[in-house]
Amino acid sequence: MSEVTLTINDREVTAEAAMSVLEAARQAGIPIPTLCHHDRLEAYGGCRLCIVEVESRGKINHVVSCTYPVEQGLAVRTRTETVDRIRRVLVEELMAHAPDSPELKALAEEYGADRNRFGKEPIFCVMCGLCVRYCAEIKGEHAVGFIENGPRREISFIPERAAEVCWDCQECFTVCPTSYAQAAYLLAKGLAFPDGGRS
Ligand code: FES
Fold first, then answer.
1. 55, 75 in Cβ contact below 8 A?
2. Across 92-101, 144-153, 182-191, which has the greatest mean pLDDT?
3. Which atom of ligand 1 is nearest to the CA of 33?
4. What is the value of pTM for the model shown?
5. What is the mean pLDDT of the segment spanning 112-123?
6. How many whole angstroms from 20 Cα to the centroid of ligand 1?
7. For an engineered disulfide with 66, which of 22, 85, 90, 185 has Cβ 3.0 to 4.6 Å away?
């Protein structure tokens, strides 16, 4: 397996050529915040919290580290003024939707985010897609998915499918950063079995 050498925060790091910058950083013990990443799932690139600065052949860019591949000689900086500012705004936007998420609260603390910068529109979901992807990629089921588009986009359990496969699983609850998956499931359960059913 071929390897490349890059620097992360001025530290020389060796990584497998197929790794993403996020994987290389984590292997080296260098933290990068993530919301939509899961080690067992395909990289998604949805939340953009893992943004970092990269420099290659004299060019500086800001990229999503969970999908950006390592390369020989790449210079990565995980905390710069610009990177921190972008993360701060992202957290502020997400907190308008999920103000009670423990993960977001911790990130707000770390990046000095103003939790009230944007008007609250609580939908309690940050659209990380972890539940949808976990169900499809790990469980091989499609009991939960995205519905609608644009601002109306949301995740929803398919009541009939959920009734068949979710009772004994519910693993997606543990990957959800806001507890919305559990709430959406209970809603689907209520729709599928208004008179109760298995719990
Ligand atoms: S963790 Fe990279 S975009 Fe969400």
1. yes
2. 92-101
3. 1
4. 0.88
5. 82
6. 11
7. 22
Long-range Cβ pairs for the range 158-164 (8 Å, 24+): 158/188, 159/188, 159/189, 159/191, 159/192, 160/192, 162/188, 162/189, 162/192, 163/189, 163/192, 163/193, 163/197
Q: Report the C-alpha gap between 137 and 114 in whole angstroms.
A: 35
Count of residues making up the chain: 199
Partner residues linked to 16 by β-bridges:
3
Residue listed under structure tokens 């790794």: 19
Task: Indicate whether residue 36 lines ligand 1 (CB < 6 A).
Answer: yes
Strands 144-147 and 154-157: antiparallel
Which atom in ligand 1 lies closest to the alpha carbon of residue 46?
3
pLDDT of residue 198: 53
- Return the best residue to mutate from 49, 83, 86, 87 for the ligand 1 pocket (most ligand atoms within 8 A of CB): 49
Q: Give the tens place of pLDDT for each residue, 9-64.
A: 999 999 999 999 999 999 999 999 999 999 999 999 999 999 999 999 999 999 99
